[in-house]
Amino acid sequence: MAKELLTDVTIRKTKPTDKDQRLNDGGGLYVLVKSNGARWWRFDYTIERKRKTLSVGVYPETTLADARRKAKEARNQVSNDIDPSDTRKEAKTVQRATLANEKRIDAGLPAIDSFEFIAREWYTKNITSKSESYQKRVLNIFECDLFPWLGKRPISKIKAPELLEVLQRIETRSIETSHRALRLSGVVFRYAVGLGTTDYDITANLRTNEHLAKVNKGHVAAITEPQQVARLLRAIDDYSGSFVVKSALQLAPLVFVRPSELYHAEWNHIDLEAQEWRYLVTKTNTQHIVPLCNQALILLKTIKQLTGGGRYVFPSARTPNGSRPLSNMALLAALRNMGFTKDEMTVHGFRAMARTIMDEGLKMRVDLIEHQLAHAVRDANGLTYNRTAHLDDRHIMMQSWADYLDNLKAGAAVIAFKQVG
Length: 421
Fold this sequence. Notes:
- The chain is of the alpha+beta class.
- The protein has three domains: 8-91, Integrase, DNA-binding domain (Double Stranded RNA Binding Domain); 115-206, DNA polymerase, domain 1 (Orthogonal Bundle); 226-409, hpI Integrase, Chain A.
- It is built from 15 helices and seven strands.
- The longest helix has 23 residues, at 84-106.
- The chain is elongated.
- The protein starts with 7 loop residues before the first helix and ends in a 12-residue tail after the last helix.
- Mean pLDDT is 87; it is low at 416-421.
């Protein structure tokens, strides 16, 4: 490095002129004496064959010794192929982010690099288009089980043991919820990796089921023995509670859609003349067609006189105008009130009931049944059938199924078949 040339006396005694003056200290450091008397420290350097200038302060606030120290730090960066200007910009960005975070925290909001902030951003972009009930379930896990412990933590600082401790706390209440919380945490961490907020997904090593108790993936509670199905159908017809709830329960075995799809059935999706219910399956984001049997049409025409003025076929009792759907607990509560336990029958069990009896007992075509369950069905070439495949056959199948259920309720002889599992 060239010999240092300046002294404080030289800098102070240099008089301003009508032109800028440059007082060199060597090694690229100099003072620029402006015509107005201001004295600015500058450092010239070359990186990637480009000549650049870095401001290192104003004299005398930045002393000669300070300027030389800053110039030395900049030279070291250049020698390591680091641009001092980029380093300064990054530092300013971090400083601005720090100040913004301090303001957010003072206002009671999560910091922008926190687990909660990133989780809410992911939620807004990916979940708010889903069904209302699903949105609530996801948000409840975040707000009740994860945010109180991890929400304010910078996501890059959270380690696997810390997350595991939170998950094990949830596990004491519900094993299934702990696994859901783990899956949600994983998507948030992977989203953060994409943003550059953290380097990796810490949940990867926790998804082996070695750290959390395994979820018992037993069959969904469902009545599939024909004589017991007859008892259930008669109990539903005799139900003395809400007419809306009773109607939904009566329709459930005739259409065997997913519970959330039944709750959210909308009048503008149902064509009574075409005898079809068409809607988007939120789970798979695909269109689905449900052929409506004669029994289903009678039910729908009857309840339309009560709820046809609103959006939902089965509206919540709390919103007489029909602007909100039936609660996802309403049908389950009705089943319990009728004496069917959680180990005996669930709302989702109507799907298992239809799948089992139509296949094993009535020997209906499996591909038609799977279509009607909105499961992916592939042809011989491995291509997924479209939603209108075999629609005429499915109309016939759904009417035959409804007639079979009517015969069961009437006490007709039932088809005996071997139960599996």
